[in-house]
């Protein structure tokens, strides 16, 4: 058997990017992937002839995006859908009052203006906040400065709660004040009618990937690494470890010797979230025309508050909603019918008996997925944005951690996965390599 230069653990976007760039540079690379498919948290479900992205769906802003450039190079089809980030008004949204009455344009404009006013001040307050401040505390301090009545204050508070839940899958008081610093969208957002996994399939094309290889231990030393799997050991000069933070922290995945500082501390301060998708396909459209999303204010929208109209993707009337943060925790063990009943009650509050039973429902279960253990990582209170990059500090010159949680500028995204894999390859090669070569054929 040929000597392995680099073992890459994980066949998601970060691992495949690193493996492809290293293979193109002439290295002998083996990718070990526990699942029987590539893509990791890119997972396009094609059962029953429908295309459903159960993991990532969006590129959150295509301007100045290396991911958008790559997708373009690969000829992947995209559809504009600019509401992926929890935005208040980037595209038309039907806002419903706590009583289920649609806000007039004037009322919606006033509500959105309140959000923008608080948002601007919130960013200033967070910039000077003491370490250990939660996002919730920063929000409360900013709201207190407004001098608004309780009702007006509550509408903006709940919007910011929902943002923390929908963007990071976490209750507002459990997220560090800086946990949404990266939350900006540059340009249109897009989704993939043919499935996001075309990206991972193309990145994996021609690589030496061993599917169904579950790694249980990575032993590192000056001379290299030995990776233990349920199909035997793999020895290499170095390893790129791209398993999610939840796996890295688990007892099922040992690193010996234990990770040193600053990597160990950074890992401790990041945490996997609670965030699930619910897709509802209906026999007919019953919701507002000409809107990208429907939003419910107030107590009625505590859990199910936002529905996104995916009809434009495949021409089938489809709404996507999220169980995010506390809702995902509370409904984790619910069966499908209990979740659908709960969502249907919320929709019927808005649309009455016009709401037909869905003809197909898909609910994800990332929280109980042993190779994900949540959807993506968030910043616990007391962490700093730099913890993401610190997690990728090379260990002993032989161990390189990559993945969405290791990229400070835009964590928790496919972009982060791509760029972190690129960085790992550069660090191993000790020189610059261009991302634009990724679509090139592999040597031999
Ligand atoms: C529901 C959901 C919605 C999302 N929405 C978006 C979005 O719209 N836009 C966006 O940009 N991002 C989104 N994300 C985040 C995005 O999917 C991830 O940031 C990105 O795909 C992570 O890539 P990765 O390579 O870092 O990790 P992964 O894709 O998780 O790859 C790691 C790989 O390691 C494997 N692995 C784990 N344990 C082991 C083991 N013991 N042995 C061997 N292999 C192992 C896993 O199976 C996996 O394939 C979403 C994620 C989820 C779950």
UniProtKB/TrEMBL annotation:
Keywords: Oxidoreductase
Entry keyword annotation includes Oxidoreductase: yes
Transmembrane feature ranges: none
A Pfam family the protein falls into: Amino_oxidase
Ligand binding (substrate): 322
UniProt GO MF annotations: oxidoreductase activity
Lineage top rank: taxon: Bacteria
UniProt domain Amine oxidase: residue ranges: 13-429
Residue ranges the record marks as coiled coil: none
Sequence positions that bind FAD: 14, 33-34, 215
Known cofactor(s): FAD
Protein name, as recorded: FAD-dependent oxidoreductase
Taxonomic source organism: Leucobacter insecticola
């Amino acid at each position: 058997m040929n000597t392995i230069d680099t073992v890459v653990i994980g066949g998601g976007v970060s691992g495949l990017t690193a493996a492809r760039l290293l293979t193109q540079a002439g290295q002998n690379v083996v990718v070990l992937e526990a699942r029987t498919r590539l893509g990791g948290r890119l997972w396009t479900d094609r059962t029953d002839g429908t295309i459903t992205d159960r993991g990532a769906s969006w590129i959150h802003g295509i301007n100045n995006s290396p991911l958008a450039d790559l997708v373009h190079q690969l000829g992947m089809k995209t559809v504009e859908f600019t509401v992926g980030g929890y935005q208040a008004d980037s595209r038309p949204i039907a806002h419903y009052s706590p009583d289920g009455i649609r806000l007039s344009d004037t009322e919606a404009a006033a509500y959105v203006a309140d959000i923008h006013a608080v948002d601007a001040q919130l960013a200033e307050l967070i910039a000077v906040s003491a370490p250990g401040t939660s996002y919730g505390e920063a929000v409360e301090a900013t709201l207190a400065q407004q001098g608004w009545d309780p009702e007006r204050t509550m509408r903006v508070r709940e919007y910011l709660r929902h943002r923390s839940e929908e963007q990071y899958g976490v209750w507002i008081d459990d997220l560090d004040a800086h946990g949404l610093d990266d939350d900006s969208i540059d340009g249109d957002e897009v989704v993939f009618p043919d499935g996001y996994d075309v990206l991972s399939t193309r990145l994996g094309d021609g690589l030496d990937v061993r599917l169904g290889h579950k790694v249980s231990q990575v032993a590192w030393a000056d001379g290299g690494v030995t990776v233990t799997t349920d199909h035997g050991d793999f020895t290499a000069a170095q390893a790129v470890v791209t398993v999610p933070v939840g796996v890295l922290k688990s007892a099922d995945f040992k690193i010996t010797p234990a990770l040193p500082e600053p990597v160990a501390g950074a890992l401790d301060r990041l945490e996997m979230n609670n965030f699930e998708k619910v897709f509802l396909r209906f026999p007919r459209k019953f919701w507002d025309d000409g809107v990208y999303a429907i939003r419910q204010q107030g107590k009625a929208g505590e859990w199910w508050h936002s529905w996104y109209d995916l009809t434009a993707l495949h021409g089938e009337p489809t709404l996507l909603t999220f169980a995010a943060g506390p809702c995902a925790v509370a409904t984790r063990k619910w069966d499908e019918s209990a979740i659908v009943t709960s969502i249907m009650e919320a929709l019927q509050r808005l649309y009455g008996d016009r709401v037909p039973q869905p003809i197909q429902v898909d609910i994800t279960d990332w929280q109980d997925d042993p190779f994900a253990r949540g959807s993506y990582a968030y910043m616990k209170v007391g962490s700093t944005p730099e913890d993401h990059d610190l997690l990728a500090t090379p260990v002993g010159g032989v161990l390189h951690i990559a993945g969405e949680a290791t990229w400070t500028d835009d964590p928790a995204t496919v972009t982060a996965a791509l760029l972190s894999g690129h960085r790992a390859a550069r660090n191993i090669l000790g020189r610059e390599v261009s991302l634009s070569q990724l679509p090139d054929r592999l040597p031999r």
